[in-house]
Amino acid sequence: MNEIQADPPDAATGDTAGPRPESPSPRPPIPETLPIILSAATVMYPQQLIPVLATEPRDIQAIDQAATSEAKIVGVFAQRPSGEGRHDGAPYEVGTAATMVRMAKGPDGSAHAILQGVARIRLLSIEQEDPWVAGRVEELQETTDENLELEALMRDVSNSFQRVVTLSETMPNELGSAVANVSDASALADFVAANLQIKTEDRYAVLQEVDVKKRLARVRELVSHEVEVLEVQSEIQGEVRGELEKRQREFILREQLKAIQKELGEGDITPELSELKQRLDEAALPEAARKEADRELQRLVSIPTMS
């Protein structure tokens, strides 16, 4: 089985699983027919870097074909879920054309490659399935309308994602700085979607949307939901920590009280005995009666308490 996963964040460099904030470099045109890699539940976005470990023969050959071609481009398509919940069904209609950044062969014949997405593509037809999968594709063109509404959407998505980074215990802080440097609306939507913990179906919905404003609006819904989840999670964790700290303080105080009582030659004074002692002090008993009461109280104190 192939292993295709998002490139893990690098806390030292700020490299992330999402599309790169920088503008994409010039690339050759995408061929009409491409070798295809079926990526199971992994949805790849333009400008995103992903490592691929191909162990199945047809995927190894697909990578070989891309590496030796002039364009050095392969199509990456996530797969629909099967009846058992695994994403091993037919490929989704929309995928990503990716250039071969690096490729090496393992001793066992497997192919190790690093791919970088360059464009959204639609799979028109499967041309062959053996010895590698090849398909006829077309590049999808985005539509965008630069206006104040789009600018407001971008600002909202960027701020919300930075809030996610702040609340998350797993995301590196560099992600917040990286998203602030993304000035292109399309790249921003893809960058945020690539770094959110969302379902494959939600990732694909973002990928297939070519209207940039609609895509960004969908990402805003996803990131806003993530903020709400993380805020509730943070509140719960805060309450749990507060309760644990309270119990810890009470334990320490009880242990300190025991140490003081031991130093004074007293036994453990329970709250009930403490209240009884206070009532005796307030009763103003005659001296003989008070001595007898103190003697009985000391006897009760010396009796071990049940924990």
Shape: elongated
Biggest sheet: strand arrangement: 2-4-5-6-7
| Named CATH architecture of the largest domain | Roll
Q: Supply the number of structural domains.
A: 3
Helix content: 40-55%
Number of DSSP E strands: 7
Helix and strand sequence: EEEHEEEEHHHHHHH
Tally of DSSP helical segments:
8
The CATH topology name of the largest domain reads Archaeosine Trna-guanine Transglycosylase, Chain: A, domain 4
Which spans of ≥5 residues are poorly predicted at pLDDT below 50?
5-17
Mean pLDDT: 83
Broad CATH class of the largest domain:
Mainly Beta
The helix-and-strand class reads alpha+beta
Q: Beta fraction of the residues?
A: 15-25%
The rounded distance between the terminal residues' Cα atoms is: 57 Å
Largest sheet: 5 strands, mixed, barrel
How large, in whole angstroms, is the Cα Rg? 32 Å
For the structure shown, list the relevant keywords.
307 residues, 3 domains, alpha+beta, five-stranded mixed β-barrel, 7 strands
Question: What's this entry about, in short?
Answer:
The protein has 307 residues and is an alpha+beta fold.
Description:
Helices cover 46% and strands 18% of the residues. The chain has helices at 57-68, 148-167, 174-180, 185-195, 200-208, 212-263, 271-283, 287-302, and strands at residues 3-4, 33-38, 49-54, 73-77, 94-105, 111-128, 134-139. It has 3 domains: 1-140, Roll (Archaeosine Trna-guanine Transglycosylase, Chain: A, domain 4), CATH 2.30.130.40; 142-265, Methane Monooxygenase Hydroxylase, Chain G, domain 1, CATH 1.20.58; 267-307. With 307 residues, the chain is of the alpha+beta class. Helix 2 (148-167) packs parallel to helix 6 and helix 4 runs parallel beside helix 6. A hairpin with a 5-residue loop joins strand 6 (111-128) and strand 7. It has 8 helices and 7 strands, in the order βββαββββααααααα.
